[in-house]
Structures are given as C-alpha cells and as structure tokens.
Design goal:
It contains 3 helices and 4 strands, in the order αββαβαβ. By secondary structure, it is α+β, with helices and mostly antiparallel strands. The protein has a two-stranded antiparallel sheet. Strands 3-4 form a two-stranded parallel sheet. α2 packs across α3. The radius of gyration is 14 Å and the shape is flat.
C-alpha cells in the first residue's frame, strides 16, 4: 500500500505475450494503483462474505496474475490460503 501511494503508475505485475494462452494472450502490465484497487475490492468482498483473521481460503488458479489479487486480499484480512 505504501508503494502504491508513492508510485501508483509504476509497474507491479507483468505477464509477457503468449499467443494461445487461455488468459492474457496479448500480455498484461498492471500498475501498483491498478493492483491496489483490485486487491481492495477483493478484500472487501471476502470480508463481506465473513472471511477474516485465521480463516483459510483455497485458491484454485493457474499460474496467472489474478492469483496475486486474491492472495493479497486474503492476507490483508489476516487469513491464510492453500492451493
């Protein structure tokens, strides 16, 4: 959150182009501000669903950028995750 406030336009997460890949085949680059917004949205959704400190959440994602949004959101609530 500190880096997102200090350098919101700096790149945080990049996935290079990979034609034929099922997600982001043209590649994607997300800034700290974009990731912060998504993480906060997911954090709020998890909290509204009753998740919080000590809860474990199973995440079933391919090795893809969206995994990090959920990982950071659950972590922000004091929860843990498992694959």
């Amino acid at each position: 959150m500190t880096t997102a406030a200090a350098a919101p336009d700096a790149p945080f997460l990049c996935a290079p182009p990979a034609p034929g890949r099922g997600y982001h085949p043209d590649g994607v680059e997300l800034s700290y501000a974009e990731v912060r917004a998504r993480v906060l949205r997911f954090r709020d959704a998890y909290a509204a669903a009753g998740y919080g400190h000590g809860h474990r959440v199973a995440l079933l994602f391919e090795n893809r950028p969206e995994f990090f949004f959920h990982y950071l959101a659950v972590n922000a609530l004091g929860g843990g995750w498992c694959r």
